[in-house]
Structures are given as C-alpha cells and as structure tokens.
Amino acid sequence: MAVSPLRPARDEEVARVWPLVRSARLVTTAAELEQLRRAAPWRLQVGERGEVTLLERWREHLEICAIQGLWVARHEVSAYVADVGSIARAQGFGEVLSPLLGEAALAPYLEAGMTVREPIVALQAPAGLVARPEARLGISVRAAGMGDLGELERIDAECFDEFWRYGEPELIRVLGDERVSVATGPWGELLGYSTCVVRSGSATLGRLAVRVSARGRGVGALLLGEAAEWAEGVGAHTFTLCTQESNETARRLYTAAGMAEVPERYALASMQVNG
Fold this sequence. Notes:
Blueprint: E1 7-8, H1 14-23, H2 30-39, E2 44-46, E3 52-57, E4 64-71, H3 77-90, E5 95-97, E6 101-102, H4 103-111, E7 115-126, E8 140-143, H5 149-159, H6 168-177, E9 179-184, E10 190-199, E11 202-210, H7 219-233, E12 238-244, H8 248-256, E13 260-261, E14 266-272
C-alpha cells in the first residue's frame, strides 16, 4: 500500500500535532511535546497528508521502540506500522511495540506482522467506591521522594520481569510526574509502592508492587485504597488500571476492592525489526 512516508516533524508542525497528543493524554503540555521533539526528533513523525505518530523507548534497558500514538486512516495502519519499523531499525531498536489496543483496533497491527505479546485486562470504578481498608498494625503509607529511589528500584526488580520492570530512569520520571506512595513496615522498611496520575478528572493507577516477603499482609489493598483516596481528593471521578490477563492474584485484589473488569479485552502486540 502506497502511503505518505513518515518524517520528523518540523517546528511549525508541532502546533498542529499538539491537539491529537493532548486528547490522548500522552503529553501534559505543548512545551513538553516540543521539548521531547527537540531532544529526540525521531520520536515525533508526520506524513504529508496529516498522519502523525509519537514514539518512545519502552524501557531504557531494552531495545524496544513503543508506538505511543498512531493517527492515520484505519485502512493504512498496517502500512504505517511497517514504516515505523523502518524508523525503529534506523534508530538501533530491535523490536516495535504497539499501543495498548482494544480488540477492535488490533487487527491491522496483526496484519502488519505483529503478534500479541501480552493480553491485558482493564478495571474501573468510581474513585469514591474503591475500598479503603483500615491500616494494619505496624504498616503505614506515605508519599515517596527521591530518597526512596534505590529501594523502589529494588522492589520493582523483585516484582516485574525484564519487559515490565522500571529502571532508575523510569522511576526518576515517575517520581517527578506522578503521585508515588510507599508502604512501610514497623522499622521504616519499604514493603511496596504505587503510582497514580490524574488527568481531566480521571485517575490511572500505573503501578502497584509489593515485596514477596510482605505479601499476604494487606499491603497491596492499603496502597490501592490510599491511591484512590488521594485521587478522589484531587478531583478524580473515575479510577482505572490495567493488569496482565494472566495475573490472577492482582485481578482478585482489584475486584475485591470494588473494581469491575471492563468487558472489552486489550493487548500489546509487537514485532521484531532486526536486520
């Protein structure tokens, strides 16, 4: 399929692109979008007919190029995914990852040669209806700071595999951009942490991790309830999160707290672009 080839956006094109990125809640401000474009021009690509894609490195320790957003005609998605593959390969990546896709949007990505990498379940509830359990003896929750960075990285490495885990660069970004809370034990030791962000009245729980040695003590439920309480306090009406379909333990935790699984299933898809 002949398409308008993607190329790095020019200075004067950022204003046109910004409403698309803002509506998808991918970047907070136009200035932030301009900053990322100047720092890494390959991340913001446009076509001559108005096509747009926003790209990022999935994790600093992995050679995976993630498509944050792709705004093209549906019948051209497959061709543009292939174009992104060429861009990613030129930047030294070995793999391209799709955005989080609902079942209805997945087909053209599969047609481009991607395969489902991770089935995802979304859960949602009114922020005020997520359960807030009583604090457990000796366990408390507080806001995290940069002084917790090293311990957060150790917790994350314990709880997530190479694909999902955050390294120091991701955790520094999250500590600057989102609400990060930590659960501590009787001697101040960190037992787990959560991250949450609120945009346009909607809260998203991005992360919930509990050390293996601290599981079964209600730490996850405390962190979840605290995040929902904070989100409601800053004006969020809905509280949403995603987890792997295979993570039955997490799904039970969230549903027990009053969250309901969204009927539609989601997925991340990927393809290799080596050589």
